[in-house]
Structure formats: C-alpha cells, structure tokens
Design brief:
alpha/beta; five-stranded parallel beta sheet; 22 strands; 26% strand; binds adenosine-5'-triphosphate; binds the ligand Nc1nc2c(ncn2[C@@H]2O[C@H](COP(=O)(O)O)[C@@H](O)[C@H]2O)c(=O)[nH]1; EC 2.7.4.8
Length: 443
C-alpha cells in the first residue's frame, strides 16, 4: 500500500481496517461503496449503523483493490445516501441576492448561503467564492436541521456559523454549521472539495468527554487511574469491550467487559458500538452504553482507546478532547512494556511494531488536541490536570457555563440522553492548547 500523506494513510487505515473487520463480521455492519474513480483519485462512501457516513478520497495506490475488491463491491446501496454534495454544482452567474429564506454569512473570500429557495425549506448550504465568482455546493456532514420558515445566522469564532431557527421548539432552535474547524479542514483535504458539518446546539454545563490515546505501555492506564483516584466524583471510565483474555488482576466489568468474539460481532452488527477496532490482534470497542453510563452518573467520561478508535470517535458525533500520550523514547516504551510483565515476547514485539505506527499517526493534523510526554510520571500527571482545567485539587471543578453543540443521537436516542453533547463555543480548552513540553518526545 502506498500513501502519499499521513492523512491519506490514516484514512486508508480506517478503511482497510474496517474492511477487515467487515470481512470478519460478515459484511453486515458497514457498507463501503466505490462512488467514483477519476485519475489517481477514488471516492468511497462509508455508511455506519449509528451515525451518518462520509465521503473519503484516496489515491488509488492507497488501496490494494485486488485484495479488497470483494469487500468494496459488497454493500453498495443506492438509497440512503448520508452525505450530500457529492457532486459540486457550479454557476458563473453572480447573484448576490438571497433566495427564499436564505441568509448570507461572509467569511474571508467566501459567502456562506444557508437556507433554501422557499419559506419552510430545508436549510441547505451553498458557498459563493468571491475570487472565482462561482457558487459551490459543499459536502454536508452531520444530521441536518429540520426545515424552518425563517432563521438568523451569525459567524462564531471565524470557524462556525450559529443558526437560530426562529419558529422551532427550544430543543431544535440552535444549530451550528462548522465551516473552518480543524476537523472540517482535514476533511476538505481528504475529500478535495468544500465541506461543512452540522452540529446541534444545546444549553448545558457538561464538560467534554476525554479521549486518551497512545502506544501500548506508554502509561495511559496509569495516568487515568491516578485521575480517577484523585477525582472520583468528577471522572468516570468508559469500560470498553474486548475479546482479549483478562490479565491476572483485571476484573470483568471494571477494566473491560471481556467478551466472546461472536457476541461482540453481533453487538457491532446491532450498532451498539460508538467505535471499535482490531488492536494487537484482538477486537476492542466502546459501546454507546458505556459512554452513557458515565454521563448518567453525572461524571466526565474518559475513554482509553487506540489511535484508530480516536480517529473514529473524532469523525463521530461525540465531541471530545483528544489527548495523545507519547513516551520519552522508544527504548523507554519497550522497557515499560517488558517490566509490566503482562505480555508474551511475541505480544510485546507486536505491540512495539504497532507503537511505531501509532506514534506516527498521533501526529495526524487535526486528530489530537494535546500531546503529553509521559517521562516523569508526576510532571506528566500535573500537565494532564492542567489540560483538563484541574488546577486546584478539588474534586468538583467548575466549568464556565457554555452553549454546547450537540450531535445527532446515536442509535436514535434523544441527544441529551446519549450524553453525546458537545462543543463549547467559548475557549475553555483553547487557551490551554499552548502547554509547552520540556522533553523531546519519541513522537
Ligand atoms: N512515567 C512513567 N515512568 C515509568 N514507568 C511508568 C510511567 N508511566 C507508567 N509507567 C509504567 O509503565 C507500565 C505501562 O503503563 P500502563 O499499563 O499504564 O500503560 P498503557 O498505556 O495503559 O498500556 P496499554 O495500552 O497496553 O493498556 C506500567 O508498569 C506502569 O507502571
Ligand atoms: N479502539 C479501541 N481501543 C481500545 C479500547 N479499549 C482499549 N483500547 C486500546 O487497546 C490497546 C491495548 O489495550 P490492553 O488493555 O490490551 O493493553 C490500548 O492502546 C488501549 O488504548 C476500545 O474500546 N477501543
């Protein structure tokens, strides 16, 4: 497999990985359709059971088509296209007047037109490029707001537009259209065209869930245990499912839900997982129930998942803080894995091979919000606390009241019930982004 960029590689990883899982689980969980192929570029439509799919663009080389041909041809379903704007429409005609209930929001060299030609229309999106004088229909990701008679639109933080639907119920009133967030920028690079993402707005004070990733043995579990011990009422651990055998001191339902492959495959098919991945030869996954259980207990959810999982969560409706933990050096990582004495030599070798890939993937633009180097444990833990806004040692940190973005319900549940709320439009985490790391990490 030849990839010309890490971003492309990451996408290929997801696709190929999912095709492999797809093969394993009987091709029922996800369909993957070859949508178009032109020159070196191929586009694939991915459909998920519990959230809207998206369009990926890969170089032909990135995919060993012969090997995966069968999988690719599986599950092509013409109906239920979850991504709009696969084809761009262009017009050289410059019409600066809004149509119907459209509102215009200028941003740089572009004007975002939101709304439709008629009152009570869908909130569709088109973008006017002032430089070329053309209209463009973007790829639209996320579940769209229902039609409305009228709305107002305001630019927020130069990267998203807030939309207030004037004739809608309170729980359907505020929406956000992401137009230039890191995720949108990454998707634009992948897809090669304009991308916008709809998110639903909800009033609330819930802090974002935390995704912690990094190579095996780097110390994720150690850091999370410390956090849970010091702040037991603040944080709750998302207990993953895994097909791996329990280690000596691991308890079912506490460290993992240890599961048979066939049971997990069925649950995946039934759409019970927010994400799942094949890691070091076993299947691991975060169930929607695991995340909701933490939310229902009134706690902030922590997910300890691998980079593939982080990528999938990043593309899912769950808006989280993404933290990548690196070792101070590869030698130290190997030492920690060996000293832990939980894996066989063969398993250690496999984990170390995968670590090299994960350390590279951790650098993918737009994937992680924070990088932590776990050299001295105490220092690393203090930095983690700073990132999470835990400057005092109280177990009830206060978060500024914010307007969150909520996302379409997973599995059809009500958005707030899923606990998957969430993107603050103030700068709670943004002003913590510049934490300097003293060491030179292995990543
Ligand atoms: N900063 C540190 N310095 C030295 N040893 C550490 C440090 N952090 C963690 N360790 C040790 O390294 C080993 C691996 O840590 P841990 O099990 O937390 O890693 P992990 O990232 O959760 O691994 P996995 O992904 O396999 O679950 C443990 O024995 C732990 O005590
Ligand atoms: N994608 C997911 N990765 C997960 C999940 N739970 C754990 N993990 C990752 O697996 C490796 C190995 O864990 P170990 O307990 O066998 O050492 C580690 O990197 C975890 O972060 C999950 O639900 N999804």
């Amino acid at each position: 497999m030849i990839c010309s960029s890490w971003s492309e590689y990451g996408v290929a990883q997801i696709l190929l990985h999912e095709l492999l899982v797809l093969d394993n689980i009987g091709k029922a969980n996800m369909s993957c359709a070859l949508v178009s192929e032109a020159g070196i570029s191929s586009q694939y439509e991915i459909k998920w059971p519990h959230w809207t799919g998206f369009l990926l663009s890969l170089s032909s080389d990135a995919l060993d088509k012969e090997k995966y041909k069968g999988s690719l041809n599986q599950g092509v379903e013409a109906q239920e296209v979850p991504v709009e704007g696969m084809q761009e429409t262009f017009s050289t005609e410059i019409d600066s007047r809004p149509r119907g209930n459209e509102t215009f929001v200028p941003l740089g060299e572009k004007i975002y037109a939101i709304g439709g030609p008629d009152d009570g229309a869908n909130l569709s999106v088109r973008i006017f490029d002032k430089l070329t004088g053309t209209w463009r229909v973007p790829v639209v990701m996320g579940a769209k707001p229902s039609p409305c008679m009228s709305h107002s639109a305001t630019l927020q933080n130069q990267d998203r537009i807030s939309i207030e639907k004037t004739d809608s119920s309170p729980d359907d009133k505020i929406w956000f259209l992401e137009v230039d967030t890191p995720f949108v920028r990454e998707q634009k690079m992948i897809v090669g065209t304009e991308v916008v993402v709809w998110k639903k707005g909800v009033k609330g004070d819930d802090p974002k869930p935390i995704v912690i990733s990094g190579p095996s043995g780097v110390g994720k579990g150690t850091l999370i245990s410390q956090l849970m011990k010091e702040f037991p009422s603040t944080f709750g651990f998302s207990v993953s499912h895994t097909t791996r055998a329990p280690r000596e001191k691991e308890k079912d339902g506490v460290h993992y839900h240890f599961t048979e492959m066939s049971t997990m495959e069925k649950d995946i098919k039934d759409g019970k997982f927010l994400e799942f991945a094949s890691v070091h030869g076993n299947l691991y996954g975060t169930s929607v129930t695991a995340v909701n259980a933490v939310k229902d207990a009134g706690k902030r959810c922590i997910l300890d998942i691998d980079v593939q999982g982080a990528r999938l969560v990043r593309a899912s409706p769950l808006d989280a803080v993404f933290i990548f933990v690196c070792p101070p050096s590869f030698e130290e990582l190997e030492k920690r894995l060996r000293d832990r004495k939980t894996e066989t030599e063969e398993q250690i070798q496999k984990r170390l091979r995968n670590a090299r890939v994960e350390l590279e993937e951790g650098k993918s633009p737009g994937l992680f919000d924070h990088m932590l180097v776990n050299d001295d444990l105490k220092t690393c833990y203090e930095t983690l606390k700073k990132i999470l806004g835990l400057n005092g040692n109280t177990d009830s940190p206060t978060y500024p009241s914010r307007l969150y973005l909520d996302s379409p319900p997973i599995n059809g549940g009500a958005p707030m019930q899923t606990g998957l709320s969430m993107f603050a439009i103030d700068t709670f985490t943004e002003n913590l982004l510049n934490i300097k790391e003293p060491q030179k990490p292995a990543c």
